[in-house]
Amino acid sequence: xxxxxxxxxxxxxxxxxxxxxxxxxxxxxxxxxxxxxxxxxxxxxxxxxxxxxxxxxxxxxxxxxxxxxxxxxxxxxxxxxxxxxxxxxxxxxxxxxxxxxxxxxxxxxxxxxxxxxxxxxxxxxxxxxxxxxxxxxxxxxxxxxxxxxxxxxxxxxxxxxxxxxxxxxxxxxxxxxxxxxxxxxxxxxxxxxxxxxxxxxxxxxxxxxxxxxxxxxxxxxxxxxxxxxxxxxxxxxxxxxxxxxxxxxxxxxxxxxxxxxxxxxxxxxxxxxxxxxxxxxxxxxxxxxxxxxxxxxxxxxxxxxxxxxxxxxxxxxxxxxxxxxxxxxxxxxxxxxxxxxxxxxxxxxxxxxxxxxxxxxxxxxxxxxxxxxxxxxxxxxxxxxxxxxxxxxxxxxx
Length: 398
Hints:
Helix content: 25-40%
Keywords: Hydrolase
Radius of gyration: 19 Å
GO molecular function, one term: amidase activity
Protein name: Amidase
Number of domains: 1
InterPro entries: Amidase_CS, Amidase_dom, AS_sf
Shape: globular
Number of strands: 10
EC number: 3.5.1.4
């Protein structure tokens, strides 16, 4: 365990899993995932069970789901056994895994620090070895950030490639499904039941987005750069040609307007039980002007076109996954806000352009894992998975 903090296995399990999920569910004993256990973020419907989405009102008011989300059905049909639902940031609004209603899941690799969100319980369960893989959702970094914080491999899929039916909508023009695993071989094995076989591919064109390494704290950027360069022959590019603020100013109105459209009415109902941070975020989402949304839509399309042209069929962009080590579990809200904005500058790249991104374990710093990310062109997951599996852990620090 990290530092002087020691946490029991029972405590990790208690804070990772929701009590209202299934303890065991299996529909097939044969298939590509036979013999594997998995967990699902409590945003995904499982027939016969409630979906609380990290909020006590949802748990109280919702009826048990009548159908299981297709993304969960795929794993079940491939022979995997579902062992539970995992906690999430409240209605997926969060980057850290800090839920005032259900607690903060433990980061098994750094128990004094947060696990990352909003797929926090999924990351905790996999990192602790309770299951072989877990499903999560990723809107603005909700798989990639916890993967980096907990030393896991995590895949955000191309927007629209995996069904989000039966998954709580948070920001529908960004929401994707993905999964987490402890190693690249398992990530590929799971991916193949969703995406098809991962073949052999020629070496990718590696594009090192040098300006993105200036966003992390200096020590983190300096620790990651040698590993980025060790991936192979790279060409340095400037990704934020328009400036970092341009990307963030494109992302914010689109995501917030989406949030208001999906959760605004529910979130502002009289007597709604919401944490202060989520209530404020939903209130902020009500202020987005239509003209700001319209302008951001065009900017998003231009950014997407530029990156797709840059990547082609064989390019990978290399970036840091997060800008710093996970915040401490007792970090003040002010520190969380600053952290979120800086990491969002990195995670918004794939979110805005709707591209697939994989987090791989690069190294450790001050006893904490730090991840490196690769972004491919649309439907480039198979190439990312093959490359990651060939690499293994870059310095053996799995």
